[in-house]
Hints:
hydrolase; disulfide bond; Cathepsin D, subunit A, domain 1; signal; 18-stranded mixed sheet; TAXi_N; globular; mainly beta; 2 domains; 7 helices; TAXi_C
Amino acid sequence: xxxxxxxxxxxxxxxxxxxxxxxxxxxxxxxxxxxxxxxxxxxxxxxxxxxxxxxxxxxxxxxxxxxxxxxxxxxxxxxxxxxxxxxxxxxxxxxxxxxxxxxxxxxxxxxxxxxxxxxxxxxxxxxxxxxxxxxxxxxxxxxxxxxxxxxxxxxxxxxxxxxxxxxxxxxxxxxxxxxxxxxxxxxxxxxxxxxxxxxxxxxxxxxxxxxxxxxxxxxxxxxxxxxxxxxxxxxxxxxxxxxxxxxxxxxxxxxxxxxxxxxxxxxxxxxxxxxxxxxxxxxxxxxxxxxxxxxxxxxxxxxxxxxxxxxxxxxxxxxxxxxxxxxxxxxxxxxxxxxxxxxxxxxxxxxxxxxxxxxxxxxxxxxxxxxxxxxxxxxxxxxxxxxxxxxxxxxxxxxxxxxxxxxxxxxxxxxxxxxxxxxxxxxxx
Length: 429
C-alpha cells in the first residue's frame, strides 16, 4: 500500500484509535494519502460487511440526497460557507489525514470539492460523536470574536459573549459552533491560524458526525486560506472502491502536477461560485455522438444549469433528457434484450455484456471512460449495471454531475488561477 497520494473529499475524525497499523504510512511534501471510506485503512467501514446490492443501493440513495442538496445550492437557496455539506457528510467517500493544534491531534478529514469551509466536532459538544478535537490541549487554539471579518462569512452569525457563533438548521437537524482558529498540518505543510467551525451542539440523526474540509472556491475554503502556499491549485487521484486496500492521493499546490494533461475551461456561476462548472458540449457512446437537446447540457448562470465535477457524488447524474438519450444509445450498442433494473439503476443485465466506451466531450478536452468507470458488477458476477442515473426528479434538477466513480483512476487537476480543469488517465492504486 505504498502509493504517493492526494486528497479530496469531506470529514474530520480523531484517528489515534482505529487505523490499521499497516495504514500508518506518512504523507510527504504537499501530497496526502486518500483512502476510500470502505478501505481497510478507514475506521468508517461498516462493522458488518454489506452485500453488493446493499452497498450499491445505499450509495445510490445517499447520492440522491446529495444531488437534491447540490440542486438547492444552484437554485439560490441558503448558500452558506460553513457546514454546508450536510448531505454529503452522511456518506463520505474519500478521507485524508490532517493534524490539528499544538501539539497536533490527528484527524481523518473527508474532502469535498463542492463545499467551502471546514468544521470539526470539539470537546464539550452536545450530540457529537465521541471523537472530538480537544481545544484545551492545544496551545495555539483561539476562538474568533464577532469583530472578525470571517464572522460575516458564516451562516446566521450571532454573538454569544465574545465568540462568533453560527447556527444552521435543516430538516430535523441542526448544528451550532464557534468560529475558531488553529494550526493545521497537511502532509508536511503547517498552516497557522486556519479558520474553521468548532462544533458545540448537534441535534438530529442526519448531522455529520465528524466534520468537513472544503476544497471549493469560497472565502473560507482551503484554497482561499492557503493561496500563498498552494496558489489555489490542487489535484487528486481517487482509487477505485473495488480496491479497498489501496490509497490514492491529493496533491496540493502547482509543484509536481502533470505536465501532459488536457484542459477545459472552468466556468463561474454567481449563484454558486464555489462549484467547479465546466462546459459539457456532447456525449459519445462508442464512436457515435448522442443526440441530446442542447438545453440539457447548456451552462446557464441565471438558472444554475450546467455540469460540475464533484468528489462527493458517487455515480454520475445527468438531467433526464441527457440521461435517457445516453442510456438508450448504450442499450442499443449492448444489443441484449433482457434489460432489468436494480434500485435507481435502470440498465442492468443478468448475462455477460460487452459495453461500449462513453466519452464526455468538453470544450478543449474529451474524457473517454473504459468499462471499469462505467459498470458495476455484483460480487457473484450475476448482475452488471450501467453506473449512471438520471438526476432527481424535481424542479431544481438542472445539474449534470461528473461523479467520483467516473473520476476514479484519473488525475483531476483544478487550476483556479488559470481557470481550468485538467483530466489525465492515471493508476491511482
